[in-house]
Amino acid sequence: MAKVTMENSILGEIQKGLLILVGITTGDTVEKAAWLAEKAASLRIFPDSNGKMNLDVVEAKGEILVVSQFTLYGDCSKGRRPSFINAARPEIAEPLYEHFIQKLKLLGIRTHTGKFGVDMKVELVNDGPVTLVVDA
Hints:
This protein is of the alpha/beta class. It has helices at about 30-40, 90-105, and strands at about 1-5, 10-15, 15-20, 45, 55, 65-70, 110-115, 120-125. It has two helices and eight strands.
């Protein structure tokens, strides 16, 4: 189960599937966003009838919840305050975020989202847990 809310209103919610936190960095492209959507859609990380990680999100009858998360590119290597200089500016990041979402939908995946650039609350029950970092 994953849910994203803003001011006590549910923006997106899934019962089974993937919560994808998307960070866009400088140098990311439409091609990288498309590749990432295809990769996320085809990852065989859901259990089959034998309990083996062998099904992708569609085969598992799951959905995807996509939340923009520029803080993934926070650099904490110097000082005590993270630097977000590696995160793409909103005018670059938002179209790539939207392209990623549209590509998932074109791949036939029921896709829910948060809202780009706003303060949201994200809830997750991590089943497994399986947590992966995928970088294009």
